[in-house]
Write a sequence for this structure.
C-alpha cells in the first residue's frame, strides 16, 4: 500500500457571525479550504493561520463579526487517522492511499475535505450495512440521499445497483465535497448532487430514501405524504428515545421496521419498508 501525505496537517477555523458569499471566497487566498455555513454563521477553514486575511474581509464587510477561532490537527477534526476502512462489503479508501479491494469488496474512494462522512461514525457504518442488507433484499431503484455530506451513502447505493442517485445537502461545502467524490469514483452518469433543504425534495420521485440526518428533520419529512409513499427508507442519526418515538410515527403511517442496528444502545439506524 502506497501512502501519500494527507491533504492538510492543520486546520485553522474562524467562526463569523454572518454569511460569507461564494463570490467573496476567492479573496481569501491559497490556504483557504472552504466555507461551512450553519444557520446565520460562517465557519472559514484554512490550512494555515489567516488572521490578516479574515481581518481584511471583516473590514470590507462590516455586517460580519468574528466570534471565535480554533486550531485542530486534521486527524483530530475527522475523529481519527484516515486509514482504509472495511465495512463489509465496502472498502473505503482516501485518495492519498492506494489499496486494492478484494474480489468480493466494493471500493469507494472518499476525500472528506473538512466534511464529515468517512465511515468512522457509527451511524455511517450502520447505514452502509443497511444499504448492503437492502441490496440483497430488493431492487433499490432510484435513490434519494438526504443530507449526503461526502456522498458516501449515495455512492454505496450506486455501487450496489441503484439505477439513479440524487444526493441533497443544504450545506454548499458538502455539495462541493460530494461532487468531487462522485468524480473520484466515476459515478457521474448515475449520481447527481444538488443543494437544497430536505423538505424541498420530499416529493422527489424515488423508490428508496437514505436519511442520516437530525431527528427533527426526519420527523418533518414524515409529515409529507409524498415522502411516506417511498418504498424503502434507511433512517439514522437517531438517539435511543428518538428511535422509539419515530417507530410510533412509522407504525401510525403503516411503515414497517425490517431491521435495526444500534451502537452501544446510543445511536440507532433503521431499515424501513412501506407495506
Amino acid at each position: 500500500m502506497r501512502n501519500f501525505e494527507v491533504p492538510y496537517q492543520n486546520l485553522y477555523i474562524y467562526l463569523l457571525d454572518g454569511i460569507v458569499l461564494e463570490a467573496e471566497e476567492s479573496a481569501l487566498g491559497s490556504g483557504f479550504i472552504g466555507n461551512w455555513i450553519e444557520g446565520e454563521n460562517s465557519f472559514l477553514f484554512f490550512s494555515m493561520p489567516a488572521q490578516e486575511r479574515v481581518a481584511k474581509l471583516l473590514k470590507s464587510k462590516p455586517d460580519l463579526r468574528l466570534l471565535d477561532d480554533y486550531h485542530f490537527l486534521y486527524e483530530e477534526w475527522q475523529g481519527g487517522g484516515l486509514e482504509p476502512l472495511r465495512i463489509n462489503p465496502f472498502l473505503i479508501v482516501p485518495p492519498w492511499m492506494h489499496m486494492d479491494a478484494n474480489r468480493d469488496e466494493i471500493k469507494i474512494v472518499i476525500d472528506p475535505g473538512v466534511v464529515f462522512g468517512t465511515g468512522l461514525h457509527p451511524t455511517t457504518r450502520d447505514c452502509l450495512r443497511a444499504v448492503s442488507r437492502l441490496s440483497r433484499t430488493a431492487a433499490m431503484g432510484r435513490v434519494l440521499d438526504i443530507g449526503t455530506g461526502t456522498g458516501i451513502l449515495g455512492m454505496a447505493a450506486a455501487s450496489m445497483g441503484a439505477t439513479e442517485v440524487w444526493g441533497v445537502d443544504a450545506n454548499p461545502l458538502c455539495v462541493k465535497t460530494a461532487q468531487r467524490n462522485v468524480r473520484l469514483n466515476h459515478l457521474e452518469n448515475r449520481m447527481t448532487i444538488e443543494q437544497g433543504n430536505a423538505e424541498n425534495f420530499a416529493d422527489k420521485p424515488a423508490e428508496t430514501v437514505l436519511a442520516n440526518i437530525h431527528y427533527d428533520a426526519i420527523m418533518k419529512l414524515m409529515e409529507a405524504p409524498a415522502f411516506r409513499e417511498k418504498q424503502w427508507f434507511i433512517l439514522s442519526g437517531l438517539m435511543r428515545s428518538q428511535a422509539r418515538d419515530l417507530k410510533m410515527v412509522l407504525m401510525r403511517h403503516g411503515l414497517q421496521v425490517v431491521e435495526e442496528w444500534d451502537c452501544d444502545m446510543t445511536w440507532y439506524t433503521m431499515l424501513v419498508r412501506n407495506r
